[in-house]
Design brief:
Its cofactor is heme. The chain is an alpha+beta fold. The protein is 47% helix and 7% strand.
């Protein structure tokens, strides 16, 4: 009997527990076949070594805007990985990506991102002050998890943080799986690009002390200068990734800790555990979205399973982070786990997240602020009642109500 191909993403018992299929596919099938919301069938990788291996292999493409590649979403363009965008293609892979990454990496060094920690702390304290003044219960997404990363990335880029509602709306629309129509996606993309283009022009004309101003001016013999379209793609990418993923992770980390209250109380008692807790929260994220695609450009094998050229594979980073072959007793939250930071929540290989140090700074500041200023923080709702954002490739919560 032919086994039915399951729909993907898989259903979860609740927002904080992984789908049972993660463990099943790791144990039985290095390359599982699943059906995307578009109806297209792709291969799915859930093992740690398989995921790292594929992401690190430069032969395979992350660009699905090519003939034969699977579509992800129900929109006609196939979703964010298939969506052609001027300038974006130039920095997605190959020499263009390496050049773009060399230029951008100068601004995202560990030293530079750590220098932002006091400023991030000031922003977090200001938002918590407002929370305390208003009183509980409070939707943590609206009160802190969304505005903090927006303020940080806007300060870094030199964009006005007052536009956070626009960024949130555009980002959610562009990350649609089933929620938005093609017309809504087209409108959001056009508005986002127009906004970014105007910002680039203003920074080029009147440079300030910010990353975008630096990128409009920087040039050297090896890398040249980013074109206008490349700068637009950079602004859109940083504004989207710089707030969407971090905002989601602040909420998921908080929900994880508060759902198992002794975990939160452990950090309250020992704030020195904050860095380890952040890494373990990143590793144990069960609501991480659909994953990352690769278009297979030549015949290959994954753990002995043949994969033909022209196939599309998705790697589920968060399923890989639960691989017991890498992380013993993977479903146990252990802030003292020695290898937690070896997770692949930020990807691996040439496309490893350039902003991962900044994200870690923001998450550490948030958690340290919560445990010092809100030691009685609690979830208002049970884990099974938390509202998940449906139809969006990035996952996350619609809101997260807390009390103290």
């Amino acid at each position: 009997m032919t086994r039915a191909i399951p729909d993907y993403p898989f259903e979860q018992p609740n927002a904080l527990e992984p789908p049972r299929e993660w463990a099943e596919t790791r144990a039985t099938c290095p390359v599982a076949h699943v059906r995307m919301p578009s109806g297209d069938v792709v291969g799915l990788l859930t093992g740690y070594e398989e995921v790292r291996g594929l992401l690190a292999d430069p032969r395979f493409s992350r660009n699905l805007a090519r003939e034969g590649a699977a579509r992800m979403s129900t929109t006609e363009d196939g979703g964010t990985f298939s969506r052609p965008s001027q300038g974006d293609a130039d920095i997605k892979e190959g020499p263009g990506h390496r050049r773009w990454r060399r230029l951008l990496s100068r601004a995202f060094t560990v030293k530079k991102m750590e220098a932002w920690r006091p400023r991030v702390q000031e922003m977090a304290d200001e938002l918590v002050d407002a929370m305390l003044a208003k009183g509980s219960p409070m939707d943590l997404r609206a009160a802190l998890a969304l505005p903090l990363p927006v303020r940080v990335i806007c300060a870094l880029l030199g964009a006005p943080s007052a536009d956070q509602d626009k960024f949130a709306r555009w980002s959610e629309t562009l990350l649609t799986l089933t929620r938005y129509t093609q017309a809504e996606v087209d409108d959001a993309q056009a508005e986002f690009r127009a906004y970014a283009s105007d910002l680039v022009e203003r920074k080029r004309a009147r440079p300030g002390d910010d990353l975008l101003s630096e990128l409009t001016q920087i040039t050297d013999s090896q890398d040249g200068r980013l074109s206008h379209d490349e700068l637009i793609a950079t602004v859109v990418g940083l504004l989207l990734a710089g707030h969407e993923t971090t905002s989601n992770m602040i909420l998921k980390m908080t929900a994880m800790l508060l759902s198992e209250r002794e975990c939160y109380e452990t950090v309250v008692a020992d704030p020195g555990l904050v860095p380890g807790v952040v890494e373990e929260a990143l590793r144990m994220d069960a609501l991480g979205g659909v994953g990352i695609p690769r278009f297979i450009t030549e015949d290959t094998e994954v753990s002995g399973v043949p994969v033909g050229a022209g196939s599309t594979l998705f790697v589920n980073l968060h399923a890989a982070n639960r691989d017991e072959r890498k992380f013993p007793d993977p479903d146990r939250f252990d802030p003292r786990r020695e290898n937690s930071a070896q997770h692949v929540a930020f990807g691996a290989g040439p496309h490893f997240c350039v902003g991962q140090t900044l994200a870690r700074v923001e998450l550490q500041v948030c958690l340290a602020t919560f445990v010092s200023r809100l030691p009685e923080l609690r979830l208002r709702d049970a884990p099974e009642d938390l509202r998940v954002r449906e139809g969006i490739s990035a996952g996350g919560f619609e809101d997260l109500w807390v009390t103290w």
